[in-house]
Amino acid sequence: MDRHIFRIAAFTALALVAFAANSVLARMALEDGTIDAGGYTIVRLLSGATVLLVLVGLDQRSTNVTTKGSWAAGLMLFVYAITFSYAYISLDTGTGALILFGAVQITMILVALFRGYRPSPAEWAGLVLAFAGFVYLMLPGISTPSALGFLLMTVSGIAWGLYTLQGRRSKNPLADTAYNFLRTVPLVLVVLVITFADSNYSMRGVLLAVLSGGIASGLGYTMWYTALGGLSFTQAAVLQLLVPVIAAAGGVIFVSEAITWRLTVSAVLILTGILLVVLNRNSGKQARNA
Q1: Residue 43, SS3?
Q2: What's the domain range around 94?
Q3: What is the rounded average pLDDT of the residues 195-220?
């Protein structure tokens, strides 16, 4: 395997595992009320900024770069994080995941089409097949969402899709991600002031938020930005549908959950769809020229 392809594949896999871990950490922290949604977002973003800025200081290649993220990416990161936290407390896991990843897919594909990128028939087939597998996996946990929860998670998905697209132009993923997190701090302070009177912090909740922000988000998003340089629009969009499969596989491995027929079928559909997209050799070249 070509060294560059192996590097992109490795960073993509690590990023997707981090995304799955992020979902689990959020569920553990927010579902049992160990920390409020505002507090979780505050700790998550501040810890992510702290860890990444320390790493930037230790990385000599990052200290002399001229690219240090953007205010647009920082705003999208904040919008994604705050709406995700508040949506999570009013939606069940399956419904939230379906809305979030559906919004991400639609956002990224619409932007790609607007920029002149035209997926091949094989890519369209892969996207449809992978999303069908994702819906089939989430189906038992889907319920009618509240209007507010639906709106917040849709906004979160759109923001994450736009944040991902910003990363395709990253020249230094570590520095860009660190400064994107740093740019969320003014808005984080606003949330701190607004939510202070009703805040609910516990040691467990703060620890889960720190793990989410410093490791799963900070390092995970840096690896995702690194991987995006070698992925097409459709590849970056469809690969994220692996996150719930990874989370389910983690439950099988670490919590001894049963391997169900639904999990097996959905995993096959998602993986087949992803292979159709990833193995389409024209997609990468077209996407980079778009």
Answers
A1: helix
A2: 3-289
A3: 92
